[in-house]
Specification:
The chain is of the alpha+beta class. It contains 4 helices and 8 strands; from the N terminus they run βαββαββαβββα. It has one domain. Helix content is about 35%, strand content about 20%. The chain binds zinc ion.
Length: about 140
């Protein structure tokens, strides 16, 4: 089990991916502290930043289960084109990735389209390594 980590940050001089890596280090420290008290608690598998093109506001989200996409109908439809949300497609559960989670926050804040989103690299908080976008995310966001 992992909880959701969610951040909204104004980008100054740092690259957006560097900001995500710093947040991943913070997530790692927080999870490590909690893990001392609970064996069921785990790191979120991925974190990513998303923003609207030309905006300096970065939304960082982690992968998680049971996301509600009812407030972002275009994103919901794009996800449902892959299959039922929550079921496995190409090895990942549809809609549970960090990318659609972060996209959802940006779309709700700016009422923007799927084609106006840009993403940072996806980072694994446990190891801080870069993770390739999955096939589902590549398909939905044309990455
Ligand atoms: Zn994905």
């Amino acid at each position: 089990m992992s909880r959701n980590f969610s951040y909204r940050i104004i980008i100054n001089r740092q690259s957006p991916t560097v900001i995500v890596k710093e947040k991943c280090q913070y997530i790692r420290r927080r999870v490590n502290r909690i893990k001392n008290h609970s064996t069921i608690y785990d790191y979120p598998s991925c974190a990513v930043g998303c923003r609207r093109i030309k905006s300096n506001e970065l939304f960082i989200e982690t992968s998680r289960a049971h996301t509600d996409y009812s407030r972002t109908p275009a994103l919901k439809t794009a996800l449902e084109n892959l299959g039922i949300i929550g079921t496995v497609s190409y090895g990942n559960r549809i809609g549970w990735c960090a990318e659609p989670n972060a996209a959802r926050s940006v779309i709700i804040s700016f009422s923007c389209g799927l084609n106006q989103l840009c993403f940072t690299e996806t980072i694994r908080p446990r190891t801080l390594e870069k993770i390739a976008y999955c096939k589902n995310c590549k398909n939905v966001f044309k990455l």
